[in-house]
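Sel1 repeat family protein: structure, please.
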Amino acid sequence: MRLRQIGFGLALALSIVFQAHAEDGQAAYERGDYASALAHWQPLAIKGDAASQDGLGSLYALGKGVPQDYAQAIAWFAKAANQGLPKAQFHLGYAYLRGDGVTRDRNTAIGWFRKAAAQGYAPARGILDQMN
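Here you go.
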């Protein structure tokens, strides 16, 4: 029982550390410091942090601090979306809607938008309303 508590405490502490570093990456991104955003997000994304994976996807999709690479963007968005991050689900849906790095597929886009909207992500709900 004690070992389980220690494991839970360690997992909680790591999630707080990941959150702080992912937020540092977001702050750098918002300042236009894409190199710092990349430096914060990349190691966390590799370790599986969904917010950082979505952030890297955004950098690659927009070519901010890295060469624009839709394949990389889709790969990172998909990792985060499959973990249930609504923002990444929206980004992936948008890529399918536009055909950015994937074959354009309205039905797949709608599916991702619905997943994000079901979690209360307002931009997904808005785009679904516009598509109807």
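Notes: The CA atoms of residues 60 and 68 lie 5 Å apart.
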